[in-house]
Amino acid sequence: MMRRFSSNSFSESGFSEMSAQQQREAFGVTLLTNSHKDIRRLRQQHGAPSIHGNKFWKSTYLLMDYLKEFPIPNGARVLELGCGWGIAGIYCAKHGAHVTGLDADPAVLPYFEHHAQLNEVSVATLCMRYEKLTKQILSEFDVVIAADICFWDEMVNPLYNLVRRCTQAGVQRIVMTDPARPPFSEMAERAVEKLGAELEVWSIPHPYNTSGLVMDWQID
After folding, report:
1. Which of 17, 28, 157, 171 is the most exposed place for a label (fewest CB within 10 A)?
2. pLDDT band at 20 (very low <50, low <70, confident <90, very high)
3. Is pLDDT at 83 greater than 90 in this prediction?
């Protein structure tokens, strides 16, 4: 079930003012560290995320930097797969997109919602596995984004099949980033060969110091 979340939803929550040592700014998005008291409180209230959503992953830097260079249209309906804390989706929302974050772990979605509130944007959430996304659901979105969601061999086929469904459902663009793990490379190379996607190496210098791959598919 999709849940709509407003940036005002935590206005009476009592969450703390931020400590400068426990937050970061990246591409205009405020991100809390694991040691911040708000993150500790979320763990107490909702439990620790269990499907690799326990921290921020650096491939999100790649995704935001790439979207800064090749932006999505204002007002686009964006779905972030395996959103975790949802930082890339929040970046899109701050640039005029209507964002839904999808994750299989219900415990991680409050972290996304809290960061959305912190960054004064409104988002929606959807708790399900991306393998279960139907063409009907995908047809509600213009752009699908993801960072670091293909890290095991058994994920290659389900993710490729999802990308293919996106291309058949009317999605206009798909952008995914990864630190160049072999499973992602295999999936993306198949999308290049069979779907006409583009794949390139992307690097960001200091202070982010990260590099990896970007797969970008756009409708003709």
Report:
1. 17
2. low
3. yes
**Residue 81 domain-assigned?**
yes
| Domain that residue 106 falls in | 2-9+20-218
Whether 153 is in a domain gets the answer yes
> Sorting pLDDT into bands at 50, 70 and 90, what band is 1?
low
Count: domains in the chain: 1
What average pLDDT does range 25-37 have in this prediction?
A: 88
β-bridge pairing 173-178 and 210-218: antiparallel
With bands split at pLDDT 50, 70 and 90, how would you rate the model's confidence at 139?
very high
8's CB contacts (< 8 A; 6+ apart) are 117
- The CA distance from 202 to 138, in Å, is 27
CA distance 196 to 186: 14
pLDDT of residue 15: 35
Contact (Cβ atoms closer than 8 angstroms) between residue 63 and residue 177: yes
CATH of the domain at 157: 3.40.50.150
Q: Is the full-model pTM beyond 0.85? A: yes
| Position 14 in a domain | no
Instruction: Return the axis-axis angle of helices 87-94 and 109-118, rounded to nearest 10°.
Output: 30
Four-point Cα dihedral 110, 116, 122, 125, nearest 10: -30
Within a domain: residue 113?
yes
What end-to-end distance do the CA atoms of the chain give, in Å?
32
